[in-house]
Design goal:
It is built from nine helices and no strands. It is mainly α and 213 residues long. It has one domain (26-95, 102-209). The chain is globular, with a radius of gyration of 18 Å.
């Protein structure tokens, strides 16, 4: 069940959300690396995975499960370790293999690379406790806790965040696809991109590992 907040509240929330969406982070690094390394379809698959992950967090926040995780030092710590380890694994993969692994099977089918990009997007978001905290601290600022529709409004704001994210992320992916041939044609540029992607994942892994609820 979704409930739309007042228009003034929604406008303020949308402006704040857009700034957050445009802030570089591991999601953006994933979109760029998959688009340039595998193809536009993989970039959109990664985006779809991230959006599914955000919807999962929206559901958990609406049901109150996210609050339980954040309130439990053990559960939050475990999720933090898992999320950091996964980001480090992505960083190692980008450093060692780059984003240019060949996802195609014998018949030239890119489906495995697309499926992997989607799964990576889902896992990277679901296993990130910082997103749990985001939904617990950011969304409630735009909801009246005394309202009988507070949970429904939080659900709407979570879905609205995804709606705002899709066109922006799509523009980023399409832009990356346009320059993909130029980048992949230069081993030096490709290597620099892979190293940068690895550094971004590693940086956010360390930041996540050192974070506290």
């Amino acid at each position: 069940m979704l409930a739309v907040p007042q228009l003034a509240t929604l406008a303020t929330y949308s402006g704040a959300a857009l700034l957050l969406i445009l802030t570089p982070g591991p999601d953006m690094a994933l979109f760029l690396s998959r688009t340039i390394g595998v193809g536009r379809a993989a970039g959109f698959a990664a985006m779809a995975g991230v959006m599914v992950g955000l919807l999962v967090h929206t559901l958990l926040a609406t049901l109150g499960l996210s609050a339980l995780v954040a309130a439990s030092p053990t559960a939050f710590g475990l999720l933090r370790i898992v999320g950091a380890a996964y980001l480090l694994w992505l960083a190692w993969g980008a450093w060692r293999n780059g984003s240019g692994f060949d996802p195609r099977g014998p018949a030239g089918d890119a489906a495995p690379g697309v499926a992997r990009a989607f799964a990576t997007g889902v896992a990277m978001n679901v296993a990130n406790p910082k997103i749990v905290l985001f939904f617990l601290t950011f969304l409630p600022q735009f909801v009246d806790p005394a309202s009988p529709e507070a949970a429904a409004e939080i659900a709407f704001l979570g879905v609205w965040y995804v709606v705002l994210s899709v066109p922006i992320c799509s523009i980023i992916i399409l832009g990356a696809a346009r320059v993909a041939d130029t980048i992949t044609a230069s081993p030096r540029i490709r290597r620099a991109l892979d190293r940068t992607t690895a550094a971004v994942f590693a940086l956010f892994a360390v930041k996540l590992a050192l974070s506290r609820a």
